[in-house]
Amino acid sequence: MAPTTRLVVPIDLKKKPSEQKLPLHNRWHPDIPSVADVTEGEMFRVEMVDCNGGSIGDNDNALDILTTSLFAAHYLSGPIRVLDKEGMPARPGDLLAVEICNLGPLPGSEWGYTATFDRERGGSFLTDHFPSATKAIWYFEGIYAHSPQIPGVRFAGIPHPGLIGTAPSMELLNIWNQRERELLEEGHKSMALSEVLHQRPFACLPTPEACLLGKIEEGTPEWEKIAKEAARTIPGRENGGNCDIKNLSTGSKIYLPVFVDGANLSMGDMHFSQGDGEVSFCGAIEMDGFLELKCDIIRGGMREYLTPMGPTPLHVNPIFEIGPVEPRFSEWLVFEGISVDESGKQHYLDASVAFKRAVLNAIDYISKFGYSREQVYLLLSACPCEGRIAAIVDAPNACATFAVPTAIFDQDICPKPGKIPMGAQLVRKPDVMKCTYAGNLPITKNPSASA
Amino acid sequence: MAPTTRLVVPIDLKKKPSEQKLPLHNRWHPDIPSVADVTEGEMFRVEMVDCNGGSIGDNDNALDILTTSLFAAHYLSGPIRVLDKEGMPARPGDLLAVEICNLGPLPGSEWGYTATFDRERGGSFLTDHFPSATKAIWYFEGIYAHSPQIPGVRFAGIPHPGLIGTAPSMELLNIWNQRERELLEEGHKSMALSEVLHQRPFACLPTPEACLLGKIEEGTPEWEKIAKEAARTIPGRENGGNCDIKNLSTGSKIYLPVFVDGANLSMGDMHFSQGDGEVSFCGAIEMDGFLELKCDIIRGGMREYLTPMGPTPLHVNPIFEIGPVEPRFSEWLVFEGISVDESGKQHYLDASVAFKRAVLNAIDYISKFGYSREQVYLLLSACPCEGRIAAIVDAPNACATFAVPTAIFDQDICPKPGKIPMGAQLVRKPDVMKCTYAGNLPITKNPSASA
Amino acid sequence: MAPTTRLVVPIDLKKKPSEQKLPLHNRWHPDIPSVADVTEGEMFRVEMVDCNGGSIGDNDNALDILTTSLFAAHYLSGPIRVLDKEGMPARPGDLLAVEICNLGPLPGSEWGYTATFDRERGGSFLTDHFPSATKAIWYFEGIYAHSPQIPGVRFAGIPHPGLIGTAPSMELLNIWNQRERELLEEGHKSMALSEVLHQRPFACLPTPEACLLGKIEEGTPEWEKIAKEAARTIPGRENGGNCDIKNLSTGSKIYLPVFVDGANLSMGDMHFSQGDGEVSFCGAIEMDGFLELKCDIIRGGMREYLTPMGPTPLHVNPIFEIGPVEPRFSEWLVFEGISVDESGKQHYLDASVAFKRAVLNAIDYISKFGYSREQVYLLLSACPCEGRIAAIVDAPNACATFAVPTAIFDQDICPKPGKIPMGAQLVRKPDVMKCTYAGNLPITKNPSASA
Amino acid sequence: MAPTTRLVVPIDLKKKPSEQKLPLHNRWHPDIPSVADVTEGEMFRVEMVDCNGGSIGDNDNALDILTTSLFAAHYLSGPIRVLDKEGMPARPGDLLAVEICNLGPLPGSEWGYTATFDRERGGSFLTDHFPSATKAIWYFEGIYAHSPQIPGVRFAGIPHPGLIGTAPSMELLNIWNQRERELLEEGHKSMALSEVLHQRPFACLPTPEACLLGKIEEGTPEWEKIAKEAARTIPGRENGGNCDIKNLSTGSKIYLPVFVDGANLSMGDMHFSQGDGEVSFCGAIEMDGFLELKCDIIRGGMREYLTPMGPTPLHVNPIFEIGPVEPRFSEWLVFEGISVDESGKQHYLDASVAFKRAVLNAIDYISKFGYSREQVYLLLSACPCEGRIAAIVDAPNACATFAVPTAIFDQDICPKPGKIPMGAQLVRKPDVMKCTYAGNLPITKNPSASA
Known about the structure:
4 copies of one chain form a homotetramer.
Chain A: E1 6-9, E2 36-39, E3 43-48, H1 63-67, E4 76-83, E5 95-105, E6 111-116, E7 133-141, E8 144-147, E9 150-156, E10 160-166, H2 170-189, H3 191-197, H4 221-229, E11 236-237, E12 240-241, E13 253-257, E14 265-271, E15 282-286, E16 289-298, H5 301-305, E17 319-321, E18 332-338, H6 351-366, H7 373-382, E19 386-391, E20 399-405, H8 422-425, E21 433-435
Helix pairs in contact in A: 6-7
């Protein structure tokens, strides 16, 4: 008999995240209780809301992006406890092999969005160039996405979970909180450094604000305690988490270290597509989605295969195998950047600066072909661009590349002898939706502030 | 009649760089005279010595790597003046489209090497972990390379020129020298920053030491003047130069900005293969080689297609199209790194740190399969690994990935249930050649020092 | 607002084909009434039962394959009438562009089967070597399929509709029936020819037996008339139909000629995967499935783009564009065959014989690695093998190749120095299910016979 | 020290085939003496003249094609005797693994040609549609080819040897001669069959005419004897030979059965590029070229790995592994054909007829975009088209596909709403060169006739 895929975390899109049958969570903490058990080798299905928990509308207005709170992202399904065939849970020191057998948007919700936050409300990689909140809606036609706000492009996405990870142990959680707090404190001392890139928050520390802890009821003493300790989900860390690796699509395998009994696997932030870097921050095609997974436990595998790099055995990172069914693009236009910033200042082998320059070069170039720079920024953040570190040794210039698949456009965008025709230069309408923070919005805190 | 490919720069491997019929150069300067003219549309062939000008031997000793001087790299063929079909030269503001029709090792010289410099003599990306000079020799069997010092691997390379570029104008050259000098001066003030990565020189400023200026005779007043001004070739810059983009292989097209009359195209640093990042610095498979090229001039194209990003119209970068015949790998093992360094310290969205961690994770993992860490370091620097910036927005962690094609190994290196067999863990012999700076070598200067 | 995908033909798997809400059909005829309308540009979903209409069970017995009737295949959903945005139907002479935006198994029915019919009951390409009915069951894990009867293989399929086509006009239908009848009649005269390949029926002519005509009620005079005329669906013809082109997967575009008002598009015979040739006849992984499609009408396009090749303007064939997301295999073991048959007899540039030899060579080779020849036959018919015509000019030998992706096996199957290990040669159990026609089965007619 | 590649068979293009230092041969026979020895594992280089031995000119006239003699093709380099590391030769029953490490045109001869012979002088697959001799010249720009006679196309080829094989034993040679003679005799009885496809010779039997036997001097008794027995090289057979498998490019591995001591490997018929089928017969881009090879002997491998299919253990075929560096095309326009011929007649599962129809459909379609049908015929024969057998079981129609990579054109050739613009329909000049057999040419025999 055909084995059935068991739905272990259902989502009802008519309900809020906090009202789901199996309650969601948006923090990392070892004490968030698991909501389901799965067994090694079993196929199971997990449904997820989009990273902003349904607060962003399929409409022609970026106000929701402007006012959404980073404190709440990302809404995760799980944790899921993983047992072996004898019913024994995965244990710290094991490696959890998670195969992505299938994934996609939730049936009936075949759309997504790409956005930049206002610079005062989370910003993005290029927030110094693009300070306003912007939003584009994408509609899915099977494997393809297109956007009413970015006319003339259509492409096959590489769908993937932006976020998947195991629960940290208390020891690991403490390491995270300490090192991120230190950064925030040091950051204020060396503001010059941060200005190189932009004016975004240095770190996202624990805060009870908008905190959701699954089965643990808000307001209880347990909730109060955990909410103060639990790590935010914005950055990827040793447990995987929000890695935003765009190629973790169907058929991929993820080897995650296990830090707590049962592994306590959580996931969310489903992307229909994303460019390397996810440069506009809310920068993939964010969607509601499902994952169909199969887990294996490699007993002792974390110790056997991973090498800690840091003061404790916990300083490890996941490894991955890529699946066989990504869209195939054969022609790429590649933009280069070096670690000299837009003011002409030289930086030392700084791949972030080099990558920033490569992305800016791509935006400026493509905007010559009938797009506003805001349209191109969202497009290149969302479509399957490849961002590479070409050279990291040729002092003082790191060299990064950003490759754009040319087949996504309905026109030829490669350089040609002769001038770019005037027609190509007319900005296509409608443009992306834009909205700027005006100061009088009902926002009480900067999203980066910690409790 | 079949058009013939004209050999415009021949190399005689029995002669030194300074003795070649068309003399080589190893600096960027507008006044280095061109050695040949080519016409738009014509196929022409350029031969080149390896980046170290033949000073590295096909032997079992890394002493030559230890003692080679970074002042001399890279030996370039050219400059070549590009004319249109009417005989008019390319002009500043044009875009030069260079198609790579064919390339490879020089016939009779089917071998190359990969090396790390000693930390006192140039170092590498991981010089804090690998402080000694090391060297591996590669032999070519058509498209494949294998190394006696790294047994059990064989792979098809993606041959490419590590370095190709146009001559800078005097104005651009001055910009380079000024911004790099500022970095060197500021660097000393903020040593903490540089220690994050390693202890390598901040910049490589002009110096007459080992300077080669083509047809301009050493010791003449003209030589003295230019040698003091001419930019070193180590970093890639606005003119292209040492980008080390590993995918610029056969069939690629390079769009270079033109800054001087005739464009004055130079090239060298041929690589049989390289991993993204070229992490071991002398880190590709360095070889003597040839390029067969075809140029087109896009009149005004630099102004039409490129957008300056900086104080002057000169702050632009080349763009590229990738060719159709790269080796095809379908299975990759992917290592992740985040911007937390090996001491456990948190950095802010630093892609260089994240990439460093990903590469270190890969080295540690693969060295479990019968290799010394030095062997793996050279291997991953030389084979066609992909280094990506997965996410650059999830404060505070940049997330980078480093993907290794698994088919290059003669064993299965993916994680499996059960322990890694003891056999896999025995280091294969011979190992890479290693040599450490002892202080008593006949070296008078640090290669990074400026005049 | 996100456009919704409209379900135009639903299937209830608990009901028989004849009981579906929108009745199915298994013949081609212009007078089979359409069951739904779709508009150009609209995304719509069509559900389909498997080619045998649910008569084959997910069980350990090939008796159902032995007794199933070829008269009934294939059960098609539709016909669907296609209108332009003004509501005007596609017309004869137009070209219908059908984009496959998405497809897959029906939710809850994630399994399929591959089979050979008994030589007396339909046979297969190699029926002279494999005369019995055999069956293997496949279970789907997302993109992957594996079979309890063929242990040690697992692969990503290239799902596709085996059959999609437009309704023929009466004139075209008459051409079909006449030419196929002529073949059947001539065939008896030149039996020697057919014996070259095997002893299968020459053609499948119209017959009322097991005939299903959608909304036209069985037994009515209209039904009687049409049933005698309507073409069987076994072969692909000018209208597309049962082409079994394995690469018509997600993202493909099919340009179908239009012969009747509304085009009357029908589809079925969904395959999870198939090798080129579909050699075992019931030889794909047959499944229940869905298609999500989008149609465009190219007015006059049949006349503009297609060139008739035959006595009337109707002798045309569809054309296709392949989609971008097929599984990626980089290593293939390729078997060759030439047009010398198994008895040693030379045939003249006969690609069918050469292909037969290539497939037989592949079966014999792979069966050395622990499989029965029946297992390999079903496997190579079902997995994404590539069958090519390498040379069709080198008299007297056509040369065909059959390429097997080696990554589907859990062992290395390439030739190596030394003997194949004994372990590899032990046939893996369980084997495929086999069942032979005994003569006493309740079968009244040979499935190839015509009325 | 870098191992050197040993040149074992040099070619001097200024000399005729019969004047080469190591004399060429154009027949298969066990008694043709070997001209060189190679050792297992050693890299060696073999140079070859084009299939017609230099008789076809780089000029604007197809007269040389009209008058060239099929008796002389193909001019082969070798035979080469293969020894193991102990100096023992490969023996009958072994398998010879030949790796193609590198290949290409001969330096200084970067051009080739594609042609159809006159129907009276060898014809081609579509000789009934294209009865005249035609010729197109191709010039190589590195990996790319373009033709003055077929403007507007340029593509990267997949270079390969059209012909590579081991010497037959006398027993195998007798089998060949007998079965081909039988075909020729039977052919005359069943002319109807051959007329289906065209009016070409059925087989190419041994003949002393234009026979070249390497070191065996013409006119000697030994020569007379062998010339009468030696097999022509036109068809591929059990020993490999003229398989024309277009994907046997760099990095491929060929496993050839060994029939005589030393294996006696011969090779020739180098192709810069070819479409599956090589439909125009002289249908690849024929060139002078070189191969760099490495051999391994798998002792007893022929018996271990290959399964004879026929009356003797000699009825085996080679197997292959495909290399990793073929050009990458992501977009294909696919034409279909079924086994109904151009007169409307139905054939039974005849893949040759189906393939013919697919190719004819492709020619007719593409000729709408500004090409003569002759131009397209030569183009599709020479560029890397894929010819597949989609379905061989759906009686009575075999279904074949012919896929054309669209990126080779300088225009978009996919179907679009609206008429094909008039501009696209103007035949581009110059056209291919054409020449018709007039009866008064100095030709004494039909090239297909046997002694």
